[in-house]
Amino acid sequence: MAKIKFILNNEMRTVDVEPNETLLDVLRDKMGVKSPKCGCDRGDCGACAVMIDGKSVRSCLVFAIEVNGQEVTTLEGISQPKLTKLQEAFIQFNSFQCGYCAPGVIISATELLNNNPHPDLEEIKEALSGNLCRCTGYQPIFEAIMDVSRKRKK
Amino acid sequence: MKKLPWHINGRLHVTGTSKFIGEDSKPEGLLYARFLLSPVAHATIIKLDVSKALELANITAVLTYKDVPGVNQIGHVIKDEPLFPEKEIMYAGQPLAMVLSPYPLVADKAVKLIELEYKELHPIFDIDEADKKKQWYIPERKIENGKVQTALKTAKHTLSGVVESSNQEHFYMETQRCWAIPGEDNTLTLYSATQSTMEVQEVMSHVLGIPANQIVLDVRRLGGAFGGKERAGTLWACLAGLGAFITQKPVEVKLDRVEDMLATGKRHPYKSRYKVGFDDKGKITAYDIELLANGGAYADLSVAILERAMFHAENAYHIPDICIRGRACRTNLPPNTAFRGFGAPQGIFVIEKVIEQIAYELKLDPLEVRLTNLYKTGDIAPYGQPIKETNLRSLFSRLKSISDYDQLKLSVDKFNGHHETLKQGIGIVPVKFGISFTTALLNQGSALIWIYIDGTVSVTTGGIEMGQEVNSKIALIVAKVLGISFDNIRVESSNSQRVGNASPTAASTGSDINGNAARVAAEQLRERLVKLAAELLSKKTNKRLKDSDILMADDKALVKTNPKLAVSFPDLIRTAYNSRIALGAHGYYATPEVHFDREKGKGHPFAYYVYGAALVIVEIDTLTGNSRLLDTYIVHETAPSLHDDIDRGQIIGAFIQSMGWCTMEDIPHDDKGRYLALSPSTYKIPGIRDLPEKMVVEMVQTPCKQASVMGSKAVGEPPFIYGEAVWFALQHAVQAVGTGKDLAQLKFPATPEAILMAIEMIKIKSK
């Protein structure tokens, strides 16, 4: 068991972790952060995406011990204090149905828009290609991201 | 601008605060369940010794069939499925024993200490082998109209063939899971990922040998289901419940993705043999079709699914002389189960392939052959239900017009003429989808509404929220009936104590049944409130107002002729409470007019039909077999939609999911019956790159006489059929490779390998 210290959603936190515990499990089971979901547990579905120092990663593929001293942001952190334009667009365009993939999809799309305010179609596809959604058929996810990008241009 | 309010839990979902099963604070003493899953498909158990596993520290219990206090049986309609097998293992992945521990890693270790010895038996995986050995759950079913054999003999042309479609993994993002919490006096609460609270409650009560009223089901929402939790969730819920009941501690059953994909049933593969007779114009005069389903190890819902496949065997086409036979066959695969469309996609795929074959033989445009055969109002379906109203023809005209079909055909021909390695193809599929549970008794539902003293409203129905936004629709219905804003309504978890005996949320009927039940409850409340409002407002005017003078709208009760004369909804509720008027109501709804006689194969199984049609254009790379979806056009009849965006979401979501089934989702098994693609790295479901370049979805909202809640039509499953258009488009693209002399033999699903093989076959034959 090792004590690690990192910024979680703008707050300094410490937690005891086993060396083999994934960030996903520690966030969910030890820190009460439930937005990252386990969809496949092997980095293929993207439901567990979180940001480490601004970069989206699959938290099921990261050992918790690795984030010592880093900054981790989950969807809970992005939502404070109010919804982002992207979250508003996700509601407006019905970009989720069951909602299970939504946290990971929003993390990936947030990273994209942070780095590239006006992504083109190909760039959106590239950024979201690691996030699986079984409900929506992706079209409304696409539309929400495009909408945020368009409105920024004005 | 968008006018309607959004997904009722939208804000929760985008902030990651919506809670799925097992995401509440962990109950004290929670035990984790781990399973010994069968490594083989068919075997006799010689020894199953759990003593070494039990000796391990921190193991609370290791349970097998011997620990079942009631009946070791979870079969529902056909009682053929044990909770744990006693002697005979029937499929690879079948749970044989359950380990419970407060420490999951310890439980994993204990599973490895269970001693299992078995003698392998011959497993059956192949439909034909099962059929030849008469491995049927029930005898053959038949639906017949006219004299098909005579009609085949007199037909100008005849064709026969075999059509196969394959399985599909649900890949709900949230795997199977359940929390079971024991309570006082031998009660048990199950937070189960199920579409059917009633079934889990009933089966659990048999397994434990306790009455149903000691078992509570509570389901807030599911992370996707698609039919995969209609019946398949029952096993895992009952295992959790058994563990909690025996240990008197809370138990979590949560499958990981590999276990889920290995051990749970899929969409049924079908193999069908047909004979068809038709005239020079492609008009089908006779259709003799035999549908064989690969049902897996236990009956599950296979018989009902077969029935729906049979009901959709003629799809949107009127065929005067027709004989539809169906047999669901037992094999040694995990019990195949409900999946969006429930057999209809499999039945429809056959007739659509037949249509394509006819068009090829007669050198006609397949679209024309489809038009020649379309149902008209007044026709009668093979099982005797009249087609009371259909707009199939106008849907087709619209489809042709929005896709600029004639031009499109020319441009595809031109493209194919100019390109050696790239080929394009057009695919078209219509749908006529029957709405109702074909098991008539399931077509009933209840709702419970409370209006609290501040004027806010709580609604419970039997409907399970799983992303189809049944809760949003229910809230919209209640808001409309009571004339209050959407934001004042909460739609609660589906809970068996608030709404008992709930039918599964399935067969696209979730909104119809539960929405209508909520409407009925809300109407009772409105009646009481309108009466009170008439009395109150009469006092403010010198006229005696009648109930019919009052309108509930904009969060108040107002006088229609003088809208300024009004009482706010909260004030009205406060007065109602003070006047001792009941502010709770139970609504009940049973779909009228649905019945079916299985012996005769005749009846009126559906409340109404949903119609639509889709056209897609694809492009294939003949060197690699890769394909691309270019444009998609869908014209889909929703009738006046309860919520345009929700329905549009269902249409697109179903289409893409079905495209996955038809083109990329392939889950083979090895010779032990173990599925081999057990994660999204090897099982490909559509990703964002698979979206078509252009997607046009037109919803036809013309009012229909045959529709359901507030004039709307069900939308969950019918659009699934549209994905088949992609398969047919791919076949046309492959066809364009050769000289056109031989019909392309494309396998299902049309993976790049399948496309490449079909191309190679064509090339060989063309030489």
Structural summary, described in words:
Chain A has 154 residues and is an alpha+beta fold. Chain A has six helices and five strands. Chain A has a five-stranded mixed β-sheet, with helices on both faces. In chain A, α3 (85-92) packs across α6 (139-153) and α4 (102-115) packs across α5 (121-128). Chain A is globular and about 45 Å long. The model of chain A has no long low-confidence stretch (mean pLDDT 95). With 767 residues, chain B is α+β, with helices and mostly antiparallel strands. Chain B contains 19 helices and 29 strands. The N and C termini of chain B lie far apart (59 Å). The interface between A and B is large, with 47 and 54 residues.
Number of strands of chain A: 5
Q: Ends of chain B: how far apart?
A: 59 Å
Helicity of chain B, as a percent range: 25-40%
Query: Largest interface by residue count?
Result: A-B, 47 and 54 residues
Task: Give the CATH architecture of the largest domain in chain A.
Answer: Roll
Second-tier CATH architecture of the largest domain in chain B? 2-Layer Sandwich
Q: Low-confidence parts of chain B lasting 5 or more residues at pLDDT below 50?
A: none
**Count of separate DSSP helical elements of chain A:** 6
- Indicate the percent of residues in helices of chain A: 25-40%
CATH-defined fold name of the largest domain in chain B = Aldehyde Oxidoreductase, domain 4
Total of helices of chain B: 19
Let me know the number of strands of chain B: 29
Radius of gyration of chain A: 15 Å
> Mean pLDDT of chain A, as a whole number?
95
**What percentage of the residues of chain A does DSSP assign to strands (E)?**
15-25%
CATH fold title of the largest domain in chain A: Ubiquitin-like (UB roll)
Beta-strand fraction estimate of chain B: 15-25%
Mean pLDDT of chain B: 97
Helix/strand/pairing category of chain B: alpha+beta
CATH superfamily membership of the largest domain in chain A, which one?
A: Beta-grasp domain
